[in-house]
């Protein structure tokens, strides 16, 4: 969606949906979409995507989100936009 509000809200919805039905989130590709939001040009979308992934990681028995140098670079760019 073009509206950052929709994207940032959708990120948090994925985390809530994961609590209800983790298999559905994985099968429908919502986790991959959530990871893609880390590259968003809106820092609030990035922040919500990271928060959602962190929440999912806390409840998951498997590794959901791994911070690589590429991911870290995206996060630092988003952080720079916030200041």
UniProtKB/TrEMBL annotation:
Chief place of localization: membrane
Source species, domain of life: Eukaryota
Residues of the Condensin complex subunit 1 C-terminal domain: 1-83
Annotated keywords: Membrane, Protein transport, Transport
GO biological process annotation, one example: vesicle-mediated transport
Assigned GO CC terms: endomembrane system
Protein name: Condensin complex subunit 1 C-terminal domain-containing protein
Entry's localization field: Endomembrane system
A UniProt-annotated Pfam family: Cnd1
Source species taxonomy: Eukaryota, Viridiplantae, Streptophyta, Embryophyta, Tracheophyta
């Amino acid at each position: 969606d073009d509206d950052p509000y929709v994207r940032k809200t959708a990120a948090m919805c994925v985390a809530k949906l994961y609590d209800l039905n983790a298999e559905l989130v994985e099968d429908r590709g919502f986790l991959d979409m959530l990871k893609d939001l880390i590259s968003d040009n809106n820092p609030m979308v990035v922040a919500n995507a990271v928060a959602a992934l962190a929440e999912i990681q806390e409840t998951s028995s498997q590794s959901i989100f791994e911070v690589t140098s590429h991911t870290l670079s995206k996060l630092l760019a988003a952080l720079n936009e916030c200041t």
